[in-house]
């Protein structure tokens, strides 16, 4: 998957590269491998049939309500999209979250206390409804998605041919700004119909929107004033109210507008459940001798991340 994504990322930015990559054996092979994976997963899923009305139930038109049955090529491409969109994104977020927790024992301890306060020992599975209300758990997830948005370079958007805010959603201040008929970014004139790509990673770490310490993992920046007043660390030393900036209009890990993430709520629920249950059962710590600090440095971005392994020590609690 990761080999193929390098070529796919090139093609998504420079479409004419496809011809060139097809002519080069390594490039063609990487894309072919990714396609094969998509085809295999789709055919496995089709053989299994639908046990419930999931994403593929609709993509493959198992209900038979569509006029035209989707072609095999379309299904392969949907299969790849579902793998990238549905599983690579969540696995990146889990990796980044656990990496941040083992590197920040104070945040880890605080999250552990919140989980232990909500779930009695052995209470499994943990109640998902409680998790929605767990301020620090949700703050840790939001802070992870701020620092490591799973699609770091965002994805191309067309500047609407008029009527931007209505189409893209009022909340999207950054896109709203590009709804004018024509505007300039530095020396480039952006006109309706042009593709614009917002770099999520860079915007999420811009001190004009998140500060102080935009590169640091500080879940407390997501707490409500009420939750902050109950924080047991001297949070105002880390986030002095007079200089703290927290602009959620510049936060869009799931994108915003008509093509935003269809799996957002599922992904959030999945992350809450997995984190709660793993921390309920196991203790995670730094694996001595592992260069854990280098993980972020060794991440490579090709539409999604090519990520090194995270090694942690896991013990049963
Ligand atoms: C942490 C987890 C996730 C993140 C950060 C994430 C992020 C995103 C983003 C930024 C987009 C917009 C891409 C674009 O602008 O074109 C997107 C689209 C999409 N996501 Fe997610 N996603 C996550 C999890 C999931 C899950 C679990 C599923 C499905 C089970 C899913 C399914 C999709 C699909 C199908 C699209 C394409 C929507 C469309 O083009 O209309 N995602 N996701």
UniProtKB/TrEMBL annotation:
Residues that, per the record, bind heme: 261
MF annotations from Gene Ontology: heme binding; iron ion binding; monooxygenase activity; oxidoreductase activity, acting on paired donors, with incorporation or reduction of molecular oxygen
Domain of life: Eukaryota
Cofactor(s) essential for the protein: heme
Database matches in SUPFAM superfamilies: Cytochrome P450 (SSF48264)
InterPro entries documented for this protein: Cyt_P450, Cyt_P450_E_grp-I, Cyt_P450_sf, Cytochrome_P450_monoxygenase
Pathway per the UniProt entry: Secondary metabolite biosynthesis
Keywords: Heme, Iron, Metal-binding, Monooxygenase, Oxidoreductase
PANTHER family to which the protein is assigned, alphabetical: CYTOCHROME P450, P450, PUTATIVE (EUROFUNG)-RELATED
Assigned protein family: Belongs to the cytochrome P450 family.
Protein's UniProt name: Cytochrome P450
Upper classification of the organism: Eukaryota, Fungi, Dikarya, Basidiomycota, Agaricomycotina
């Amino acid at each position: 998957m990761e080999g193929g994504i390098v070529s796919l990322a090139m093609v998504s930015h420079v479409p004419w590269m496809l011809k060139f990559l097809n002519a080069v054996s390594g490039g063609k092979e990487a894309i072919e491998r990714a396609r094969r994976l998509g085809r295999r997963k789709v055919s496995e899923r089709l053989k299994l049939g639908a046990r419930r009305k999931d994403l593929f139930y609709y993509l493959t038109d198992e209900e038979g309500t569509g006029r035209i049955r989707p072609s095999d090529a379309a299904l392969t491409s949907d299969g790849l999209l579902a793998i990238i969109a549905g599983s690579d994104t969540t696995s990146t977020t889990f990796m980044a979250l656990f990496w941040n927790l083992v590197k920040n024992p104070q945040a880890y301890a605080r999250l552990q206390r919140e989980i232990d306060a909500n779930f009695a020992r052995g209470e499994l599975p943990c109640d998902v409804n409680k998790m929605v209300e767990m301020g620090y758990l949700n703050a840790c997830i939001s802070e992870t998605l701020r620092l490591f948005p799973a699609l770091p370079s965002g994805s191309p958007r067309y500047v609407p041919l008029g009527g931007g805010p209505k189409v893209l959603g009022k909340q999207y201040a950054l896109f709203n700004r590009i709804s004018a008929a024509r505007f300039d970014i530095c020396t480039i004139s952006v006109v309706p119909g042009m593709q614009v790509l917002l770099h999520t990673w860079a915007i999420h770490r811009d001190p004009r929107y998140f500060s102080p310490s935009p590169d640091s993992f500080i879940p407390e920046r997501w707490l409500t004033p009420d939750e902050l007043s109950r924080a047991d660390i001297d949070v105002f030393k880390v986030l002095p109210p007079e200089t703290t900036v927290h602009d959620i209009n510049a936060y869009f890990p799931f994108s915003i507008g008509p093509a935003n993430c269809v799996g957002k709520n599922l992904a959030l629920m999945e992350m809450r459940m997995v984190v709660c249950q793993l921390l309920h059962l196991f203790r995670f710590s730094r694996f001595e001798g592992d260069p854990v600090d280098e993980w972020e440095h060794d991440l490579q971005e090709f539409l999604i991340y090519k990520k090194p392994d995270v090694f942690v020590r896991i013990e049963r609690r």
